[in-house]
Amino acid sequence: MPHTVDATTTIPAVPAPATSTAVAVADDTTVLSPVAARREERSGPVSGATMIAEGISAWFGDHKVLEQVDITMKAGEVTALIGPSGCGKSTFLRILNRMHELVPGASLAGSVRVGGIDIYDAGERITETRRKIGMVFQKPNPFPTMSIADNVTAGLKLIGRRVTRDERDVLVEECLTKAGLWREVKDRLDSSGGALSGGQQQRLCIARSLAVRPEVLLMDEPCSALDPTSTRRIEETIDALSSEVTIVIVTHNMQQAARVSDRCAFFLAAEGRPGHIVEQGPTEQMFGNPSDPRTNDYVNGRFG
Ligand SMILES: Nc1ncnc2c1ncn2[C@@H]1O[C@H](COP(=O)(O)OP(=O)(O)OP(=O)(O)O)[C@@H](O)[C@H]1O
């Protein structure tokens, strides 16, 4: 899947020292990692569910694109999946909410457990899996002719949940507030979702995902079509949501991975091997003191 490079996708030139909570950015200024600051602030309980993928391999026909991927995405954390184009990040993300199986000829092996339940278990209903595991895509996809409020509640019908008018109003405000959009749209909830800016549409899509109370939110390059200001707003939203929903984000933007994630996994498909995880760990370590030279080269923009 191609990705758009915008002004925010510059890869940091200088990695932060391993012992520091600072993250180096392209212009050589250092800022306190918001992730580190957030960790310090967090003292209360976190919600969301830990997601554990074990032994994941994937094929399109007989083309094997992922091999033996093992990763735990912890409740209350943001996990960033990074790696060069074509290494299988989006495929892996789609396996995490059973979208991979919608592609004709696609197959997979391994297990994905959310809160201890295997989403591929024969007894698991796909609609319940999609409720538990929301997804936000690269390009915002609100229903353009529906009102802002109706966009937020659009997922309720799919899961068979009925709400009264009052409950609906409360839910719309709650989800738009969590997605960081309420103040901008509260006086025009009945106008069309398609009339919002790209960044607002993406936050509307996040609000729509939240309305069905997911335990995990998957984000596939959610800012790649957005300008730097909208990107910052989405990152703030990710930060605010991270204590209540487990977030897994695919990003090509190394600064973004450093800013928003607690942990990173570096994927690579090379030397005749399908996509696999070369290294994973706390974000500060992955950027400041990675153990594999290929990780070091990638996070410092030497390839990919
Ligand atoms: N629908 C499909 N049918 C066949 N092959 C596919 C399909 N989707 C992806 N692939 C192949 O699977 C491999 C992994 O693709 P994927 O999109 O998961 O990688 P990625 O790391 O997310 O790439 P990018 O960063 O460019 O989005 C690639 O070789 C790609 O060509």
UniProtKB/TrEMBL annotation:
Task: Give GO MF terms, alphabetically.
Answer: ATP binding; ATP hydrolysis activity; phosphate transmembrane transporter activity
Q: Which Pfam families match?
A: ABC_tran
Provide one Gene Ontology biological process annotation. Answer: phosphate ion transmembrane transport
Q: Where is the ABC transporter domain?
A: 51-299
Q: What are the protein's UniProt keywords?
A: ATP-binding, Nucleotide-binding, Translocase, Transport
Region of interest called Disordered, as start-end residue ranges on this chain: 282-304
Give yes or no: UniProt keyword Cell membrane: no
Give the GO cellular component terms, alphabetically.
membrane
Has keyword Mitochondrion?
Answer: no
Identify this protein by name: Phosphate ABC transporter ATP-binding protein (PhoT family)
What is the organism lineage in this UniProt record? Bacteria, Bacillati, Actinomycetota, Actinomycetes, Micrococcales
